[in-house]
């Protein structure tokens, strides 16, 4: 079983937090950020999206049903202000926030369709700050923006000559099964400050305050990035029913690029235990490589069913 440890924090610590949406920085790393600041270290937040595709809270707070492009932009600006205020409560100067303005609910498409430009931007952000520690979303997070953000970061980090320690934080979904994780409690004062930072995300507290407070009140958790299924052999953790095969796609992302193809077009073998194994020669990669299984159907359900694995 993989174990996770949080590196010792000091004045030399340079923590880069990669947040897909405004509020992830506070929910997932509000205590860690304060601990790094208290140790005299530096913090930078890379905010991938402004959280503008967030229609239900927007409908509720703005009392409007139709949400158009202009409305979404306005909502994104509002959430950008909220994240600045939250960071202020955590003691992080606003100059430490680097917003990239990528499309909310669009990180997977961005990784797939604009791979090079996306990895170049993340690489530039990482190189400019030279972190000693990166906090990034967990690969197994069920929100598609979070899983895609993990893969983007890992591919950007893999381009570097020197390795950087990183911690993977889960926000959506259950991550306890069979995993050893690091848990950061923080002091009572740090936990209180984190909760006060959370209140600055008023757009998110409006409909989900209870869930948000519940997430923020638990200790911060960092999981083994690969989950329990690391193999390095192309073995896939899923056994989708045959009846679904014509409708499935497998997306593979690695240093050589991203390829999204129908399930049946990938070269695979099936083991005696029923598991599928991808022929890794089809992936041609020297570095971290990830796969995502998904149904090629439009669905109102945004969360991943199968999600990602490390190949
Ligand atoms: Zn998020």
Automatic annotation (TrEMBL):
UniProt organism field = Rhodanobacter glycinis
Q: InterPro entries of this UniProt entry? A: GlcNAc_PI_deacetylase-related (IPR003737), LmbE-like_dom_sf (IPR024078)
Q: Name one GO molecular function term.
A: hydrolase activity, acting on carbon-nitrogen (but not peptide) bonds, in linear amides
Q: What is this protein called?
A: N-acetylglucosaminyl deacetylase, LmbE family
């Amino acid at each position: 079983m993989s174990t996770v440890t949080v590196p010792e924090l000091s004045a030399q610590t340079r923590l880069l937090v990669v947040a897909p949406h405004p509020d992830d920085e506070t929910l997932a790393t509000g205590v860690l950020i304060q601990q790094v600041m208290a140790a005299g270290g530096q913090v930078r937040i890379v905010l991938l999206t402004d959280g503008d595709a967030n229609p239900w809270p927007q409908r509720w707070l703005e009392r409007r049903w139709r949400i158009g492009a202009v409305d979404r932009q306005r909502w994104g600006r509002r959430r950008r202000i909220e994240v600045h205020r939250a960071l202020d409560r955590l003691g992080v100067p606003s100059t430490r926030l680097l917003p990239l303005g990528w499309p909310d609910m669009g990180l997977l498409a961005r990784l797939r369709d604009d791979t090079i430009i996306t990895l170049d931007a993340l690489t530039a952000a990482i190189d400019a700050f030279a972190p000693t520690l990166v906090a990034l979303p967990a690969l197994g997070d069920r929100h598609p923006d979070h899983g895609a953000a993990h893969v983007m970061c890992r591919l950007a980090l893999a381009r570097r000559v020197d390795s950087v320690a990183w911690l993977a934080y889960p926000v959506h979904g259950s991550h306890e099964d069979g995993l050893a994780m690091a848990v950061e409690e923080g002091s009572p004062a740090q936990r209180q400050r984190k909760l006060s930072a959370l209140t600055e995300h008023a757009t998110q507290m409006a409909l989900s305050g209870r869930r948000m407070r519940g997430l923020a009140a638990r200790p911060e958790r960092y999981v083994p990035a690969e989950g329990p299924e690391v193999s390095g052999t192309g073995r896939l953790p899923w056994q989708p029913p045959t009846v679904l095969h014509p409708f499935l796609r497998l997306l593979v992302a690695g240093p050589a690029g991203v390829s999204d193809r129908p399930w049946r077009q990938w070269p695979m073998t099936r083991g005696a235990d029923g598991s599928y194994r991808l022929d890794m020669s089809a992936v041609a990669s020297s570095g971290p490589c990830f796969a995502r299984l998904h149904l090629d159907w439009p669905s109102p359900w945004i969360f991943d069913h199968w999600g990602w694995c490390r190949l």
